[in-house]
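Incident log, structure service

09:12 report received: a user says their structure output differs between two submissions of the same chain.
09:20 pulled the input from the user's history:
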Amino acid sequence: MQYTCAVPMCPIDQLIELAKTAEEVAFDNIALPDSIFYMEKQTADYPYTADGSRMWNEETPWVDPLIAAGAMGAVTSKLRFYTNVMKLGSRNPVLMARQVGSVANLTNNRFGFGVGIGWAPEEFEWCGQPYAKRGKRVDEMIDVIKLLLGGGMVEFHGEFYDFERLQMSPAPTKPVPFYVGGHTDVALKRAARIGDGWTSAMLTSDQLAEIIGKIKKLLADAGRAGDPFEYQAVCIDKFDVEGHRDLVAAGVTDNIVMPWVFDGLGFDAPLDKKQDSLKRYADTYIHSGWQN
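09:34 re-ran on a clean worker, output below:
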C-alpha cells in the first residue's frame, strides 16, 4: 500500500517545505485539492458533509493544484503528485490538456490527474460553463484531454467540443494516469470505463470495501479485470497498523492521510509541527515494515 499526504487548506507558504519533508520521510505521493473561489451564498449542498455546509470559509487558502504540482515537483525528485480531484466541469478541456501535459513534462512523469465533475453551480456558471449536462460534458472533456495528451496531429468532433487538426508538443513521454473521483454509480462506472484508478472522499472501511467490490465487478464487465488499477482512499475509521492491514484486505492501494490532523493539529498549524507529524507518521507506518 502506498501512502499519500493530503494538503488541503494548508497555508500556501508551507507547501514547498511540506513536499520536501514528505519525500525525505518516504511518502509516495502528495494529493492536491481543488477550489476556484468561495461564493458567499451557495445554491447547492456540499456533498461530503452531513448538513451540506462547506468545511472552509472565505479566508481559507487554496492554490491551483497544477501550479502547486509544478512548484513542488521542482524541489523533489521521487515524490509523485495528483489532483484530488480537479473539478473539470468549470474548465476548458483544450487549455486543461496544455496544463496537464506541462506538469507531466516538468515533473518527469510524476503526475496523476484526479478528475471529478464539481458540485457548485456557481463554479460552472461564473467560469462560463453550463451546469446542465455536466456529466456527459465531463465525459467528453476526458476524451479530449486524453486525445491531446497522446501527442501527434489530432482532431475531435463531439457533442460539446469540436476542433480541426492540431497538435500539442511535447506530449508527455508516458501516459498520464487518470483517477476518477465520486461515489455515485455513474462515477464508479466512469472510473471503470476510462480510469487508471478511483479516488474516494471521506468513507469508512466498510464503505470503501463495498465500493471497491462494485468497481472490480464493473472492471470485469468491461473486460479490464487484469488491468492495473489504483484505489485511493480517505478512510475515517482505520488508523493503526491493524487497521491498515484491513484496508489492504479491502483492496485499498493508496492510503491518503493528513498526519497533523491525526495529531490533533489544525490545517493552519505551524510548519515545524506538521513536519514533526510527517516524520512520526512515517516512522510508525512507512518505515515499520508492517507490510513485509
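09:41 both user submissions now match this output. Likely a transient worker issue. Closing.
09:42 reviewer note: The chain is about 40% helix and 15% strand. The CA atoms of residues 212 and 251 lie 7 Å apart.
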